[in-house]
């Protein structure tokens, strides 16, 4: 598939983000999307064909592969990238709504349609919460599906129609383990950045509101 739409989405939202948000976008684009497209996709390209069991029993390899890889790591990674990036659409839609509203009324309704304040601030905070939630959910899925972020060299399978407990060998386990650790590390960094940006925005606008109230009382 083409990942151009995701690149365009992240580039478009970049101008509405804070400094921390721009770092998050750079990490998603450079260290996750590009690594996925350029390298990781090829590592899992023939994972089913290269999965071998020491039996010729028809259907045995298929059921064993399905047991240990119920969802392909690379497809789960792709789904994670899409879902983590799409909350940014909320911000882009809100800015587009503001710009369209100004055009309809033919007057200046906002100091800057892309400035993070008022309703747009709430939308931005919701997008951060959603992105953090998706990251945590997918880390949990990877942990549960792949036995604690591990890719073993050998797995034993005794499911029907296998005649007995057979040994099955996973192709390129070390390489897959490296990419899995990289995925977990970048997800962890993105979670830290999202929480930091969320805290920064809440503190910034809380202080701003407090100072505004204080100045009104003084007057």
From TrEMBL:
UniProt subcellular location: Cell junction, Gap junction; Cell membrane
Domain Connexin N-terminal intervals: 42-75
Keywords: Cell junction, Cell membrane, Gap junction, Membrane, Transmembrane, Transmembrane helix
Stretches of the chain forming a coiled coil according to its record: none
Gene name as annotated: Gjb7
Name used for this protein in its record: Gap junction protein
Subunit structure comment from the entry: A connexon is composed of a hexamer of connexins.
Domain Connexin cysteine-rich: 134-201
